[in-house]
Amino acid sequence: MNEKILLVEDEKTLAKALKFSLEKEGFMVSVAYDGEEALETLSHETPDLLILDLMLPKVDGYEVCRRLRRSSDLPIIMLTARNEDIDKILGLELGADDYMTKPFNTRELLARIKAILRRAGQLELAGRKTISMGDLQVDLIRHRVTVEEREIPLTSREYALVSFLASNPGRVYSREQLLEEVWGYDFCGDARTVDVHIRHLREKMEKKPAEPHYILTVWGTGYKFREA
Ligand code: CA
User: How far is the CA of 73 from the centre of ligand 1 (A)?
Assistant: First the structure.
């Protein structure tokens, strides 16, 4: 996973601890210590998600959010104090995706980040109708996969796995991440489940399953879909 998070937090100890926890989960994390720095960073970087403290020096979180929302639907999680106006934060005026009240549990924040990123990925997917890679086509409307216009018979799980990987070409996923993304948050499966499904997909899709062209193994890490 190489999703990028911009963390905007002026409490240095909290920022450092959060950065550490997020990086441990595989995220790439940049930190801005005030609103001005956040806007500056956002002018030349596009993170996948923003964690935004409300009370910040120079430009506060309200203003950062308001300015950002004029041109972007980047997912935003607000960090708030207990007495903030939640309706305003989540409402039309600011339009944050979620909020956490300080002090919060880091695991809870991680769960919300993942839920939001998953939702954002699904929305992105919903806007597209097909994914093409050479002779392979994934029809996201009909849930069909064809190779050289020949339909490949897939189970629903195989389809979910190949459409997920193909929607994020070049991005490397560990077996655990694929279990979480494709099998669902609560699935307590064996990572070998993923290997078995990948093997079946290759046998069905690839001309030479032992030398795969579409779903590539990243040794010691997991799998990725070939980039165009
Ligand atoms: Ca603060």
Answer: 23
Residue-wise pLDDT for 186-223, tens only, equals 556 678 888 988 999 999 999 999 999 999 999 989 99
pTM above 0.90, yes or no: no
- Of the candidates 11, 1, 12, 61, which has an alpha carbon nearest to the alpha carbon of residue 36? 61
pLDDT value of position 164:
93
Name the CA radius of gyration of the chain, rounded. 20
| Residue 227 DSSP symbol | P
**Do residues 72 and 47 lie in contact, with contact meaning Cβ atoms separated by under 8 Å?**
no
43-65 pLDDT, tens digit each: 998 899 999 999 999 999 999 99
Q: Given strand 222-225, what is the order of strands in its sheet? A: 173-174, 222-225, 215-218
Give CA–CA dist 122/115, Å, rounded. Answer: 11
Name the residues around ion ligand 1, CB cutoff 5 A: 10, 53, 55
d(CA 47, CA 85): 26
Domains in the chain (CATH in brackets) are: 4-122 (3.40.50.2300), 126-225 (1.10.10.10)
Rounded to 5, what percent of the chain is helix, strand, coil? 40, 20, 40
Centroid of ligand 1 to alpha carbon of 33 (angstroms): 9
